[in-house]
Amino acid sequence: xxPWVSLILAVSLDGKLSQTRHQRPGFxxxxxxxxxxxxxxxADAVLLGAGTIRAYSTAFLIHNPELLQARTLRGQSPQPLxxxxxxxxxxxxxxxxxxxxxxRLLLTGELxxxxxxxxxxxxxxxxxxxxxxxxxxxxLHLLHERGVKRLALLGxxxxxxxxxxxxxxxxxxxxxxxxxxxxxxxxxxxxxxxxPALPRGQLVETRRLGDELFLCYRFARG
Length: 222
Ligand SMILES: NC(=O)c1ccc[n+]([C@@H]2O[C@H](COP(=O)([O-])OP(=O)(O)OC[C@H]3O[C@@H](n4cnc5c(N)ncnc54)[C@H](OP(=O)(O)O)[C@@H]3O)[C@@H](O)[C@H]2O)c1
Prior knowledge:
Blueprint: E1 4-11, H1 30-41, E2 45-49, H2 50-56, H3 65-73, E3 81-85, E4 104-108, H4 113-119, E5 124-127, E6 129-130, E7 133-134, H5 136-145, E8 150-153, H6 157-165, E9 171-176, E10 202-209, E11 212-218
Bound molecules: NADP nicotinamide-adenine-dinucleotide phosphate (NAP).
NADP nicotinamide-adenine-dinucleotide phosphate is lined by residues 9-10, 17-18, 21, 23-25, 48-52, 55, 85-88, 90, 108-109, 133-134, 154-159, 162, 187.
């Protein structure tokens, strides 16, 4: 069994996630922040690539009292478990991520004793895969076993490409933002892999707020 995987992204009109890999995106509106918080509030866990954490240094927290109350009524913890995927574990223990009030899990393929000692007081580990990286299919299975029924995948593009390659995305919430970025170092919504078959989504929801479009696509697994 695996969790339902809901991928949530905001992109520019040319499909970019931010201006440079080291920056958080500056273009999504307040409406998109509300949308993101609403979608994330439904999840038992949030998964991010280490590249995204290096750009943000924080996890995404739910603040809206109504969303927090709805989580309590559903029997969920106040905040989703934050899961960060990394091969290198090149992450800094002084970042806010490691002090924020939520459970966190470092997902990696291999872990040395030194790495475990560096992070141990602040974080749990899920070691799954090998030195080439995490086996995401197996990781989803293990997350489901520990109660994660709904996973919000928040990017970035490297993780997104792997999830599509493995056929592990159930739905994509895409916010199309009215800016063009075009920079040669601007990361794309999915990158780094040639997909053997092109995943094709079914459009199940569209909403316009101001100049942004909020789209939801469903994908068949596998
Ligand atoms: N607009 C949006 O909605 C949105 C959403 C998310 C991110 N972003 C932006 O996207 C950019 C970051 O994206 P990105 O593509 O560079 O990074 P990413 O996908 O978030 O992270 C890439 C990193 O994830 C780890 N990783 C990837 N595959 C792995 C595997 N199989 N096993 C273990 N670890 C694995 C590696 O970490 P290590 O290097 O530590 O080994 C890799 O360097 C930032 O600019 C951020 O602001 C925007």
